[in-house]
Amino acid sequence: PMKDAQKPDHISLTTLVGRLKEGRFVIPDFQREFEWKPWDIRELMRSIFLDYYIGSLLLWKGTKENFDALACEPIYGYPDGNGNHEHIVLDGQQRLTALYYAFLAPDAPAPNRANRFLYFIRVDRFMEEAYDDAFHYDWTQWGIKLLGETTEQYKGHYFPLSVIGQGGWELPNWVQGYERYWQDAASLANDGGDEPAAEAAERHADNARAFGEHLKGITQEYQIAFIELDRDLEIDKVCDIFTQINSRGIRLDVFDLLNALLKPKGLQLKHLWRDAAPRLDFVETERMNVYILQVMSILRQAYCSPKYLYYLLPGQPKKVREPDGTLRKEILIEDPEQFETLWAQAVEALVKGVDLLRHPQEFGAISSEYLPYVSILPAFAALQVAAGEVPANRRLDAQRKIRHWYWASVFTNRYSGSVESTTSRDFLDVKAWFEEDSAEPPLIAELRSRFRNLELRREVRRGTSVYNGIFNLLVLGQARDWMTGNIPQWGDLDDHHIVPKDWGKSQGLTGMIDTILNRTPLTADTNRHVIRDRLPNEYLPELVAENGEPMVRATLESHFISPSAFDVLLRSPFTPDDFEAFLGERQRTLQAAIEDLLVKERLDLTPQLRDLDTRVESVELALRRAIDDALGGDPAKLPPHVQQKVDDRIQTAVRRNPSLDPAEFDGLARRLEYFDLRELEETITSKASWSFFDGRFPSKESLTGRFCQLAELRNGIRHSRTVGEIARKDGEAALLWFEQVLASQKPAGSE
Fold it and tell me: Model confidence over 72-82: pLDDT tens digits?
């Protein structure tokens, strides 16, 4: 029966290399030739020695009749002769052949090359974690000569991978010889009084021991997964399985592998997925079943690459290295019941995460095609779980930090490539950021420095993270319908052209007419009944005539079309230069919106509080300028207790961000950026410095009262996100007072 025909298992690297050496694996005639390039083999070696998962193999336990019927041949480079044939390779030929070529170093040219290629690890680079330079291949006479000269290998730190293929004591002998070489070199250097050379040699000797331990661990403990098909399967069924895998592109992935490995434990993973799939069908992706496994893995061990998913198997021990170097075994999931519980938690987290992302007032991805990334879902869902586990009084702040991380990821294209390591790093960084007084992840500073360089005019294709991110912001901005002035039902919105596409084609603007700067969320009715392939200078006057200019301008401002951009759209005749001017103005407006909503974190505020927060910021900046002017830019005139608090804050910032130069803070203006509102007040009102400000403000008492009102408003906006009516009105009065007082002051030396 088919249920007994597939046997999932795994094999250590040493055992696999031994079986390759014995000729256990053969390639059926219908497989393609070995196609990998020399650098592909190098990258596979890199993956293995960095302990990454390299995929599973599909093997068929063969018989002599089947070997003959399928015209099987040895792996490329294997010497003539029958070998001890055991398995027909259905999936994994390229990887197995690469392993054979690198570890057995056959005296054969690389495929489609004139020369033989040899593979080495540069031990010194490997131990420095300079992994991009650590894996080396060579096809010259120098490399062939090096293969036979052990002393030169030790001297140049070149470890031949073929040592592993030789088996026996060759590997420990090489490592011991390498260590002895550098111990002897250290002794010679010490005898000669060359202390730097002795230190370097001792470091190499220490590295030799550590490298030897790593080699031992990889060769003995690194596991390659495989599925073995029973020898009694009929050839036609085996060929059909192979065709399914290779021709139709339905590859065995980690989900299929875990499904096979869980069956003997009484778990039907495909059945669990079948039940969960309808709840997650909003997102169009074939990887959602793997994303559930990734969320499970992140929540249990913070990592989610395929190698780590293997440890989700109930009872599967994971080796964990303690700080003292000892290894212990840890079981992440004890039994099938615990697996199902964690699966259900991961499904719930993804459902909640998707609901948040698609909500028009939360993240604005109103349909799957407007989701900036599908690949960000595991990190986003796992962080939602982590945020729910912080103390209740910090959950609001945790959600704020998730939003900040999310938008920074969108506008820095963070999740556009291979993302498993990024997912793990972000989960750990943002979870740590949930703690009070913890450092923000570097990504947040990256958004601040990069958002001004976003070339939004180049975003012409729906589906890219920045294009979709801008569309999401337009939805979040509650862009109003152009005919009714109402906020439309989100299911009725699509991104339509403001200046029509046909006009762009007629002007030769084929690509640029599709930029996100010329698109906005509109209903199909608005597109059909208002725009109708007409220029704005035709349809906007009609809207003005029906609804009044103030209403139409306000409606378009909800689409980040500024008054200046509105005026450009009305120009007649409307030329390509006018279109360019419109794009430039909307780029400026959207950049300002990104700064205001995301960098300054005003996204969650009502429009009224958003305006008040902007005014508070302006007053704080004006107070800094007034203090810098009154104290003549001299930090020594600051009150000592304020000076100490700010010094501590600056030192922390420099420690967390090595790019900051402490010399930047010699002047007062730069130091003032690290003052909070109360420290600005204390600087002005303290006994030591009031004389510098006496006459600039009506009285110390009135100034102190206004600072209290302003602080209550500011803290209400920035922290609790709720502001009572009395606090708001008092704060508005304080803002007005400060704005008038500071506007009346003249900088020192001005006329």
Answer: 888 888 886 66
CA pseudo-torsion sign 695, 700, 702, 703: positive
Record the tokens describing residue 346, joined without a space.
């991961």
- Residue 69's pLDDT is 66
Rounded CA separation 402/383 (Å): 7
Alpha helices in 374-419 (DSSP H): 377-387, 395-411
How far is the C-alpha of 276 from the C-alpha of 294, rounded, in Å?
15
Structure tokens, 569: 């759209």
Region for 721 from its dihedrals, namely left if φ exceeds 0, alpha if ψ lies in -120 to 50, beta otherwise: left
Task: Decide if pLDDT at 140 tops 90.
Answer: no
CB neighbours of 463 closer than 8 A, spacing ≥ 6?
369
In angstroms, rounded to a whole number, what is the distance separating the alpha carbons of residues 434 and 497?
41
Structure confidence by residue, pLDDT tens digits, 495-543: 889 999 999 999 988 778 999 999 988 888 888 888 888 999 999 999 9
9 backbone dihedrals φ, ψ, rounded to 5°: -160, 180
* CA pair distance 358, 111, nearest whole angstrom: 50
Report how far residue 588's alpha carbon sits from residue 598's, in angstroms, rounded to the nearest whole number: 15
DSSP states along 320-353: EE-TTS-EEEEES--SHHHHHHHHHHHHHHHHHH
Q: How far is CA 461 from CA 203, 456, 466, 512, 514, in A?
A: 53, 11, 10, 10, 7
Between CA 48 and CA 44 the distance in angstroms is: 6
CA–CA dist 497, 500 (Å, integer): 5
User: And the tokens for 171?
Assistant: 């590997």
Q: Is 81 exposed, middle or buried (0-12, 13-18, 19+ CB in 10 A)?
A: exposed
Q: Which residue has the tokens 């041949």?
A: 73
What Cα–Cα distance (Å) separates residue 747 from each residue in 491, 627, 628, 698?
55, 10, 10, 17
* Cα–Cα distances in angstroms (integers) from residue 28 to residues 31, 186, 244, 455, in the given order: 6, 54, 16, 52
Q: Which residues contact 351 (CB under 8 A, 6 or more apart)?
A: 279, 280
Asked if residue 221 lies in contact with residue 319, where contact means CB atoms within 8 angstroms, the answer is yes
